[in-house]
Amino acid sequence: MTRAQAKQKSSSKRDSGSKVKNSSVTATEREKVERLTPGRVRALYGVVFMACAIFLFLCVFVPSSVGPLGRGIRAALEWLLGLGRYAMPFVFGACAIVTFAGWKKPGVRIGLLAAGAFMIGVSALALLQIPKPIGDMFASGQLSGGGGIVGAVIAWPFTRLTGKVGAYVFAMAILFAGIVVAFEEQLVFVSRRIRGSGRSRLDVFDARAKNKTGDAKDVCSPPKETGKFMGEAKVYPSKPTKPIPVREESCGQLAIDMSRARSGKYKLPPASILNRSHNKAFSKQTNDERKVAIEQTLQSMDVDARVVKVTAGPTVSLFEVEVGTGEKVKRVTELEQDIAYSLGSPDIRIYSPIPGRQAIGIEVPNHVRDSVFLGDIIDSLGPTAPHNMLTVAVGKDMSGKPVVLDLAQLPHLLLAGSTGAGKSCCINCLVSCLLMRCRPEELKFIMIDPKYVEFTLYGGLPHLLCDVINEPEPAAKALLWAVREMEKRYILLQGRRVVHIDEYNAIAEQDKELEAMPKIVIVIDELGDLMIVAKREVESSISRLTAKARAVGIHLILATQRPSVDVITGVIKNNITARIAFQVASNTDSRTILGTKGAEKLQGKGDMLLDPGNISRAERVQGAFIQQKEMEFLTGYIREQRFEEKVTIDLEDVASDVSGELRDRDALLFEAAQFVAYAGEASASMLQTHLRVGYARARRIIVELSQLGIVGPHEGSKSRKVLMTPDEFEEWKQRQ
């Protein structure tokens, strides 16, 4: 038994040793396979093709320098291809160039390209062999001076059956068929370009003919904007359109011409103040390797899917994946961790479907991101006009197109994200765009900066209605002033029977007795700070402004680094549909901002998800960047100009006139005031009995009546004195 046990132990040791050796060999083989990345394999093929091209060149043109092997290859090519032997070195050289450049270019199918090239080569050899006599077509002399044996095999049956003319027809047909198979996409693209240029020329000729015949008198619209302006940018929620001019009627009605602007000595800052970026960090080879890695991962999991398109953006690249018929989309979305592991990037984002396409989107961060400066996209806003005065440049999308927001249509904007994600830089870009497009009499700002340092450069500008506000109490007063200004403007619009501030200002252009109203943008850099100190006052004012202030030209830009429900309340979310989410800590914060996850996987430094409120899925945008020096140059350019004394608001008057309005009024306040005015005394128990409310609410109503000056102060156990008679109460009620 001991000998048998010893033999079993020795045999088990040998088996384990062999298993270890085999596992080590397979591990080394896997390492060797993993070391051969797609880039290295492509380089190896390129070197092989280039060596073959050089060797064939020497064989064909200098056969004496390559020995008997080279002379044998030359003779074989001469017999096989005839005159086509001179093209073989260049064919292999082209293959080397294509291999080094990368054959995984989206839209180029290598199989069809090779098939088309083969058809072109065979037809060309046949065309070279057709002129030869039919009886001597396979003679060695005819083969070397024509299309070789390949051309003779194709040309002889056609020439025998259809004659030389028919053979030429069929050979040319094969040639053109090969061109179509190989270069179909390029031919379609060229034909579309030719048709487009032909149509544009016909339009020019038609316009000239109309001008000659006098038909141009009815054309009132200016020429369309072309080139680098708003036609190439994405504008949210929609592209601003010029209003239709209203002509003056015979009855004396004022003409409304929205395209006319006020003239003055003030000059808008030029776009040359801003810097442009020059670096292009995108690497096509990196995305080709990622595409191969994604497809290999899907194939290893038995998923029938392939990458059909790759779009490189400033921060991330989008890989569009199409699944096969009968394959579940869920199988791809469940492989997020496996795909992230194969790419070596934990912050990928998978969503399905891509809006407007039957494809799954996989967003992968770039190793090196491109810089997007405000100067790169400021030209996409186009020339300033009254209908697009409040358009601002945000950044670039994943395809590199500029993204533009029209604040007049949004009409309010909420920004949220963690510290250092790019909120303040985004606000500076938005404000800089407005300063570069609007005169002081056209636009005013109210800036609230609880951080004390973000808006210091804007101090003293003529666009400010008041100095930059840093404390919560004056901030609440400023918001309350904006509410009262909104109500005053609605009264003015009602008096002129118009529904929008643009219509009122158009009338003010013609009627010198009226004064045009500037648009007002309220910018709050940290909403969370205000909500901690004066939540009721701030939330009440913001809810009223966001609900009604659009028609009178008052807009809000709110930012916070605390995307929680106590800061971004339901009232604020319902009234502000346009939101920008920067990088946050968790998907809970992302859901608070956008209603969906995704912001927790952003890359920071301006990487954002933009939801203008009218698209099904938030769009990923790389926000623009503006440097401190550029802001100094911009504000300095504005301060150096001569302008009239700026209009300011007095927040102290707001506090003295409506000190009680800083708090929300109870819904039963007027009924309680009327009751105590006619009763002659007031107490919480009386209101509790009359209004049928609890004691706590009745006590709060008594305090509010005291703040409004209707009842007197507390006098112990006695009822409070009523300071208004019934007649005085009725007058006070009418004033309210």
Could you characterize the architecture of this molecule?
The protein is of the alpha/beta class. 49% of the residues lie in helices and 11% in strands. It has 5 domains: 28 residues; 151 residues, no CATH class; 82 residues, Threonyl-tRNA Synthetase, Chain A, domain 2, CATH 3.30.980.40; 276 residues, P-loop containing nucleotide triphosphate hydrolases (Rossmann fold), CATH 3.40.50.300; 71 residues, Arc Repressor Mutant, subunit A (Orthogonal Bundle), CATH 1.10.10. Helix 2 packs across helix 3, helix 2 runs antiparallel to helix 4 and helix 3 packs across helix 7. The chain is elongated, with a radius of gyration of 38 Å. The protein has a 10-stranded mixed β-sheet. It has a 4-stranded antiparallel β-sheet with strand order 2-3-5-4. It has a two-stranded antiparallel ribbon with strand order 15-16.
Give the tally of structural domains.
5
Tell me about the largest β-sheet.
Answer: 10 strands, mixed
SS content category: alpha/beta
End-to-end distance: 110 Å
CATH top level label of the largest domain: Alpha Beta
Number of helices: 24
Shape: elongated
CATH architecture of the largest domain: 3-Layer(aba) Sandwich
The spatial strand order of the largest sheet comes to 1-7-6-14-13-12-8-11-10-9
> Which whole number gives the mean pLDDT?
78
- What Rg is obtained from the alpha carbons, in whole angstroms? 38 Å
What is the total tally of β strands? 16
Q: What fraction, in percent, of the residue positions are helical?
A: 40-55%
What would the CATH topology of the largest domain be? Answer: Rossmann fold
| CATH homologous superfamily title of the largest domain | P-loop containing nucleotide triphosphate hydrolases
- How much β-strand is present in the residues? 5-15%
